[in-house]
Design brief:
Blueprint: H1 6-26, H2 32-49, H3 56-74, H4 78-99, H5 104-124, H6 129-154, H7 158-180, H8 187-210
Helix pairs in contact: 1-2, 1-8, 2-3, 2-8, 3-4, 4-5, 4-6, 5-6, 6-7, 7-8
Length: 219
Amino acid sequence: MKKNFTPLFFASVVVMMSVYLTCDMFSLWDSRPLKFVTSAVITLFGLSVIKKKESRFVSVGLLFTLAADVFLVLLDKYLYGVAVFIAAQLCYAMYLTYISDKKAVPELVKRIIPAALAAVVAAVLGFKGNIVLPAAYAVCIGVNIAHSVELQLKKPCKEHFLLMVGFIVFVCGDICVGLRHLPFVTENVASVLYLITWISYPPSQILVLASTGAFRGKG
């Protein structure tokens, strides 16, 4: 009989989140390694349960997300992490394209060209890299959110709804990350934004993973 490790997976994520949030709120110790482990557990579990061809785009997206966490969480290399996150969003764009029965090239163009233009405009306006690259990323995830909303409206179902909510929760965390790197944000505000980021981040990954049907053995 095949064992179902899903309850253990959810329990472990809840425990790890509870521990690192407690550490952050009370400044007990550096919780970044535990945050990375949490992301790694989600990624590895996702790779183990995803089976369908179209869902493999989510697998690659999770891998890129974990790679981005190496830069953002462990190495504190913000721009490198954002660059890898762009690759993750392009993987999710391919997943959206596949389940929407659309053509890949036009859908990628809808993201890449506007993202490049956003980066160029930000650079021309004199912004530095910590704004230029996130501007490109914001366009990519923004289009993905719009696409997921369109998909849910045209083909409403539980999986599409979970994907849409997952992207929305994801971007909430991303906004907090971006705001934290603005020069005028105070330390207290940055601390709150940091907590919100790590409250929303694992659930957003799990929601995207759940949209594949993997937790029900249909991923």
